[in-house]
Amino acid sequence: MEHLTFDYPAQRAVTTRAHVGVVGSGDLEVLLSPAVSADTLTAHVVVRTSVDGYSHIWKSVLDRFFTRYDGAAQIEINDFGATPGVVALRLAEAVEAAEQGDDA
What we know:
The protein is of the alpha/beta class.
């Protein structure tokens, strides 16, 4: 089990929560919530993965995601062997769910 953390600059506050996916064979869950400190515009990502030795892949996927996403959020990813494509999909789903929550 590997535990990774990443931080990215953000431009706007996130005000809602989202939960997508499930932890299961070949999948993962993403929990997105407002940043811990409203004063600091930073996205903080915590990855808990069952697959050791792939921090460089996680960094690449998250770097690409944060070129498009600018929300100050706390993101927790619980992984059970998901591919980079599934990770990108779940992150996009979490953002969409959180943004739809803003409209409600």
